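**User:** I keep going back and forth on a fold encoding question. It is easy to fool oneself when nobody else works the same problem. Could you pick a protein and write out its sequence and tokenised fold? Could you put it straight underneath, so I can go through it closely?

**Assistant:**
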Amino acid sequence: MTGDAVDYATSREQGANFPEIPPEEFANAVQLVETDGRVYGAAEAVFRSLGYARGGRWLRWCYERVPGFAAVTETGYRAVAKNRMLASAGTRLLWGHDVRLPTYSLTRRIFLHALGLVFLCAFLSVWVQVDGLFGSRGILPVSEFLPAVAAHLGDGAAYELPTLFWWNSSDAFLHVVCGAGTLASLLLLAGLLPLPAIAVAFVSYLSLTIAGQTFFSFQWDILLLETAFLALFFAPARWWLWGRSGAARVSRVGLFLLKLLLFKLMFMSGVVKLTSGDDSWWELTALNYHYETQPLPTVLGWWAHQAPEWFGKFSTAVLHFVEIVVPFFIWMPRRVRLLGAGLLIGLQVLIALTGNYAFFNLLTIALCLLLIDDATWRKLTRRRTRV
């Protein structure tokens, strides 16, 4: 983190060169020797060292300026220093052997490719149905819907329901928007012009969502729009995702917002079940009804419905755990976070195997990929190469 600004060495290597520091001080805490000869130890040495890192200056500022910060951190440092073996074991258990600040450049590339794939599925699905759903001779013609909205809302209609079809609601333009969204999806999937591609895909799908009325009122449509909007703050302003152009700094704000979206999606999915007033969720019998009432159940869904009652209750209990408890793993150290990613992705795979929820599961899995940092991706790639 500090680059070449700070040199690091063990006291065995360099301790003899600093006779002003007693050996017991080296044994008790890390020591920082400034270029002017001043010596600092323990937590102060750590925060002063981090002051030379671009992302660590605020910690030094807190140590020097925030009341109580120095006392608390020095106490914590001494507690860890007196129990180094235990602290080291806990660190390896939660973080693994790589304790460096995780990076997400490779993760961003993989996530944006996955988002492009989801958009491609969404646009192709709409494109083949657009005439029959809300074309001029469709079930809910957009050419009739928008004038009725304008008559009801007046001049503010376009702001209430933003869509490109205010300018042109012909069948030909419906296909133009679907085609533009498909092209943008292909560009994002290929890693080309990621920021403009997301913007075009977002505007196109938002326009279709408004025009599609009831046909676009599902959870996955809203989730795709939320994800795409936040991805605008996460995607790099580069021509290409790979190579040097893809090595741009990852926006921590964008990453945080996307993780927060995943947390909200999963946690609220669990909370809404328990607060719905339906006793079957508390009695763990909800799956007795779920498989036979869900949209387009699969063959595996039929078999799941035949499972013993105890298995259904166990599955419901696991579902509550994954949706309510596991989302907190998103904010935990690496190994706990990876465990959370595995459980969340596993849940989405099981849901997709037993029922058809369009691209919802694929999009949720794409969000879960943000929990896997670059070091883990590289480790998985090396392992695959060896095999």
Remarks:
- The first strand starts at residue 31 and ends at 33.
- Strands lie at 31-33, 39-41.
- The mean pLDDT is 92.
- The two ends are 33 Å apart (CA to CA).
